[in-house]
């Protein structure tokens, strides 16, 4: 049987087998993407039949179809045998309607899809389930990634599920949160901390992977993108297969926004949905090469040295999936924006206080959305879905620092301080004015 999927260079269209381990094109050095034989997939089922198949699987009690990635197995990695799948399961994250954000933005319908509700508390579990499963299928014994914290947490945890699979993670020293750092250590991964930034970490690791038999699981490995695009599938399914008008995504290495764009494009090609949302990529102003490129009309590739930001997981100056992201966003008439530290942290406090606890990276998307509303890029009637990428519990220090007003240059507009009181019932009661509620 001819495989249903291949690797294709995004620069010169050269094709490679998917079961080859490769991350770039021999001919032009560009990155690759997985392409599926959409004609064969179309011949298999029509749009309504695909929808019915996936809806039927929502009732699965066990097995791979319980996963929010593998429910869509045939569209994620159709050539991967079910027996090779490493799943926790992941996905099935909540989609919250946020009236407080709707009021502030003057928007009709705003939802947050909380990918922080994944097993290792970030969206990375989706791509890692695909990447580790494919690696296992190819017989990889050791996996590796450079990370700003979440990729490494996910990789370490999925590799730990595979008997005999070893992992190496390479992290920029002092630039990942304590909770993120604890995750690969807990999972038994070889954890290296380098006195440099993420851009350098990934450059060095790619060099090592050329010489050593390590299966590289950064998003330069396009198999990961296939897992991540299930965010688009699941979002569409949660909305009864009626996609929102805009999807807002925080952007660092730019793999996720490319994946989400690919997911929607493939669903439309297969007749599963009839239109695709526009994409808004949000970056922290301290690390915003794509937002700058969009302002400059994408006339040349922008690389920056990433500066300090509370959104440390997207502190990336030279995104690996730059070209894929620009293509995904331009194809649907979307754009990129940048948000300041004040905007990011206020947006976080607002969403957190609505009972949806998000990380500063996710808050960058919320702040980007508010900016796009102010500028009139997104109109009031648009149905908007914001992708929150990791849980607030991964960044507790940032939350506490904001509420105590100790982040330099940031005014804690929504501060909720801890009250230190003596250990007595009356001291507690004195906190309740007039005997009422707190
Ligand atoms: N949000 C969070 C919480 C992330 O961890 C990342 C990326 C992003 C957004 C951006 O996604 O890179 O696909 O554009 N974290 C990577 C890591 C770089 O190593 O964990 P992207």
- Major sheet, described briefly? 6 strands, mixed
- Name the structural class: alpha/beta
Number of strands: 13
CATH architecture assignment name of the domain at 95-121 and 224-403: 3-Layer(aba) Sandwich
Fraction of residues in helices? 25-40%
Characterize the quaternary organization of these chains. Answer: single chain
The third-level CATH topology of the domain at 95-121 and 224-403 is: Rossmann fold
- What is the H/E order? EEEHHHEHEHEHEHEHEHHEHEHHEHHEHH
Average pLDDT confidence is 97
* Name of the top-level CATH class of the domain at 95-121 and 224-403: Alpha Beta
Which percent range describes the beta-strand content? 5-15%
Measured between the Cα atoms of the first and last residue, the distance is: 66 Å
Bound molecules: ligand F0G
Which strands sit side by side, in order, in the main sheet?
4-5-13-10-11-12
Q: Supply the number of helical segments.
A: 17
Low-pLDDT parts are: none
Shape label: globular
Radius of gyration: 22 Å
Task: Describe what this molecule looks like in 3D.
With 438 residues, this protein is an alpha/beta fold. It has a domain of 207 residues: 3-Layer(aba) Sandwich (Rossmann fold). The protein contains 17 helices and 13 strands. Strand 10, helix 11 and strand 11 form a beta-alpha-beta unit. The chain starts with a strand and ends in a 9-residue tail after the last helix. The model has no long low-confidence stretch (mean pLDDT 97). The chain binds ligand F0G. Ligand F0G binds next to helix 6 and helix 11.
